[in-house]
């Protein structure tokens, strides 16, 4: 575990401020050089050949990387976070209307790629607060002009949660810029928390557990920070809105006749049950929220039932799980029916299950939950190459790495999981 922790920390930094890398996209007629402060989802310069092109700064992924970086205290980590704050503030000045005014960039796009471009009407709406609803930007800090799943509302609350972790540890000169970013993300979250947006997997527009849970956590934790800043009125409003969102999350629980049930990942407008209702994003929401007691945390029996249901389903669904060795929990995927890169297991999903167990162990059945967490971590170990490199997926049949290589989120998930395990062992009697 110590060796893999060193690998994860080293490989994670490959995605942070990738100024030594340039991504050529001939179809779009563009060359993108990584900027200081950017965090690319993967530093591998792929083009769906077969690995996907992840050389973008995703708001969601970058926030999770910064949260994991906080577990690696060092002057280098502090500098990286400061650069991330500067980069994030600069994004607020982006304006899609400038791309509409000078359309020469469209002339460089090949005919094969023109169907993937955003039209002027959509680009013209991207300015001011709307920038924060973008899923991603180019690694150089410019707008992504390709079609994608928008709007997405989980980036600002996740970035706010990461900033709140860093706030007590930053130097005085960073507090001004950081506070500016936090207030902007807080304003966005307050305005958009309950509005429809795309889900964590960027596939469906609607009302999603993950987005609501992260918004509730960001508002509640920001309320504590605001109270310390002598902003009692705003703090009270944020706390009240967080409580309202948590009550709405109660509606996501689907009780069954035998007393079991699970929390659905999304609610359909027509009241029907989505094919993606059972989704590991609910477990990810519980750990990304960073709250360990009460409703919609790892201590909540409803979420514990959700993890148990996911485990039973994926134990049968993925061939690699059917003959797993003793002491191994099933490797988890995203949801039944997933077809992205054939829908294998995901490192982030299996690591999320492990971290969920370690967090649940802070309550009752401590030894049982701790053992389950270790069994999930043993599963990750079984499918981790000797090099320590983590991809996005684990092939459902062979167990080989699949999809994006050197996925920053996978490394962040490992660091977060091990941090939870160490915290549990430090508190052990």
TrEMBL record:
Gene3D superfamilies on file: 1.50.10.10
Pfam families tied to this protein: Glyco_hydro_15 (PF00723)
One example of a Gene Ontology biological process annotation: polysaccharide catabolic process
EC number: 3.2.1.3
Keyword tags: Carbohydrate metabolism, Glycosidase, Hydrolase, Polysaccharide degradation
Catalytic reaction list: Hydrolysis of terminal (1->4)-linked alpha-D-glucose residues successively from non-reducing ends of the chains with release of beta-D-glucose
Primary enzyme class: hydrolase
Family: Belongs to the glycosyl hydrolase 15 family.
InterPro entries: 6-hairpin_glycosidase_sf, 6hp_glycosidase-like_sf, GH15-like, Glucoamylase
Single GO MF annotation: glucan 1,4-alpha-glucosidase activity
Protein name per the record: glucan 1,4-alpha-glucosidase
